[in-house]
TrEMBL record:
Keywords for this protein: NAD, Oxidoreductase
Organism annotation: Brassica carinata (Ethiopian mustard)
NCBIfam families: NDP-sugDHase
Catalysed reactions listed for this entry: UDP-alpha-D-glucose + 2 NAD(+) + H2O = UDP-alpha-D-glucuronate + 2 NADH + 3 H(+)
GO biological process: glycosaminoglycan biosynthetic process; UDP-glucuronate biosynthetic process
Origin organism lineage: Eukaryota, Viridiplantae, Streptophyta, Embryophyta, Tracheophyta
Name of the protein this chain belongs to: UDP-glucose 6-dehydrogenase
């Protein structure tokens, strides 16, 4: 919305939320999320044509176009638990829009939702419309965190789905004109509603599948002595495959990939396509396998126990340049190590101690509810400490694990880190960002995903 405000000075954008602290933060100097480049844009537009408000009803009533970007968590109970999307927040947003509206509106689905949600929302709006006309559009977002602003300035494509009726086409055209202020028209794709909704799930499933494919190869590389970086490079030079998104890692995280694939799996099952469901489920299974494999590698290398050993975790966010920890592989790795009674010391340049404690205490999927509805565990995890410096976190540690590819981890003084650690000193690089040869020269025992193994690690096979 900030980018729309920047690129369309003639459009007034109001961002509304029922959370007072969140809106206050958007109106302050300390924005509630870290995203490179966002602060500048917000400061440039705020108070001119970009407003943040808790007066939801007023702004919805006045708007011509309403973008709905509410949470769509994975259901934890009831029908479809663990797979289906919980549309409670979407449904109440639709009811509120119907309630307060006094003029015709275009309602845009911006949250990623299961296919055919638009139809359900349309029904709610139509049955409560008091004669007002609503057009529903699906306009899924393809930006990635950490590069959001660049992605929005220069998107590969913008996708708009709508009803194939004259009113539907008009609504699509109206939204297209908003994006056409900065996106070339041939990059604005228009489809029917269901294609737009499904394309979003499909795009994320394909992206996640690439990571699971390369991660599956990483396991085979370790067993055979091949190097996954070399394999990925060789594979990616085929122009039909392409070089991007082939970095082996400890596993993918983030708020979207797993949730969207679970959704896709559920939709396939509901449509009587169990083989298709099973096919996509494997992408998640390999991701879970990769995280388990990483934990097992740590434990087995360290004489099959990390009980009371200090393990330093560098990076907790699900990727670099974000403070977002939703579904970060660090949660599963830390929980795995805690299960083996390790003492964990964590440093991440953007994630707070409060967030880390909440993540490690929270049940799966609970993160996707608004803060005030998240069940809070009263206990903090005592074996976990959070430091504001990598040297502090690694002091006296038996092992260091790199779980986020923050640039600053590449240029740390690893000699100094080694000197202050217990011996033998281990490094487990879950992002393949460190200079393995240099670390070995210093004296570390190094494990790097999908790379030829140290003699030490070969002697201590990890079993999943
Ligand atoms: C992802 C998609 O890339 C966006 O196109 C989409 O709009 C977004 O989900 C969404 O649905 O909202 P995001 O989750 O922000 O974006 O970040 P990604 O860059 O896709 O990374 C996801 C995870 O995959 C991270 O944990 C990252 O470290 C991991 N990853 C990525 C790898 O392990 N290897 C790679 O080669 C690339």
């Amino acid at each position: 919305m900030a980018v729309i405000a920047l690129k369309c000075p003639h459009i007034e954008v109001a961002v509304v939320d029922i959370s007072v602290p969140r809106i206050n933060a958007w109106n302050s100097d300390q924005l509630p999320i870290y995203e490179p480049g966002l602060e500048d844009i917000v400061k440039q537009c705020r108070g001119k044509n970009l407003f943040f408000s808790t007066d939801v009803e007023k702004h919805v009533r006045e708007a011509d176009i309403v973008f709905v970007s509410v949470n769509t968590p994975t259901k934890t109970t009831g029908l479809g638990a663990g797979k289906a999307a919980d549309l409670t927040y979407w449904e109440s947003a639709a009811r509120m829009i119907a309630d307060v509206s006094a003029s015709d509106k275009i309602v845009v689905e911006k949250s990623t939702v299961p296919v055919k949600t638009a139809e359900a929302i349309e029904k709610i709006l139509m049955h409560n419309s008091k004669g007002i006309k609503f057009q529903i559009l699906s306009n899924p977002e393809f930006l990635a965190e950490g590069t959001a602003i660049a992605d929005l300035f220069n998107p590969d494509r913008v996708l708009i789905g709508g009803r194939e009726t004259p009113e539907g086409f008009n609504a699509v055209q109206t939204l297209k004109e908003v994006y056409a202020n900065w996106v070339p028209e041939d990059q604005i794709i228009t489809t029917n509603l269901w294609s737009a909704e499904l394309s979003k799930l499909a795009a994320n499933a394909f992206l996640a599948q690439r990571i699971s494919s390369v991660n599956a190869m990483s396991a085979l590389c370790e067993s055979t002595g091949a190097d996954v970086t070399q394999v990925a490079y060789a594979v990616g030079t085929d122009s039909r495959i392409g070089p991007k998104f082939l970095n082996a890692s400890v596993g993918f995280g983030g708020s979207c990939f797993q949730k969207d694939i679970l959704n896709l799996v559920y939709i396939c099952q509901c449509n009587g396509l169990p083989e298709v469901a099973e096919y996509w489920k494997q992408v998640i299974k390999i991701n879970d396998y990769q995280k388990n494999r990483f934990v097992n590698r740590i434990v087995s290398s360290m004489f099959n126990t990390v009980s009371n050993k200090k393990v330093a975790i560098l990076g907790f966010a699900f990727k670099k340049d974000t403070g977002d920890t939703r579904e970060t592989p660090a949660i599963d790795v830390c929980k795995g190590l805690l299960g083996d009674k390790a003492q964990i010391s964590i440093y991440d340049p953007q994630v707070t101690e409060e967030q880390i404690q909440r993540d490690l205490a929270m049940k799966k999927f609970d993160w996707d509810h608004p803060l005030h509805l998240q069940p809070m565990s009263p206990t903090t995890v005592k074996q976990v400490s959070v430091k504001w410096d990598a040297y502090e976190a690694t002091k006296d540690a038996h092992a260091v694990c790199v779980l986020t590819e923050w640039d600053e981890f590449k240029s740390l003084d690893y000699q100094k880190i080694f000197d202050n650690m217990q011996k033998p000193a281990f490094i487990f690089d879950g992002r393949n960002v460190l200079n393995v040869d240099k670390l070995r020269e210093i004296g570390f025992i190094v494990y790097s995903i999908g790379k030829p193994l140290d003699a030490w690690l070969k002697d201590m096979p990890a079993f999943v």
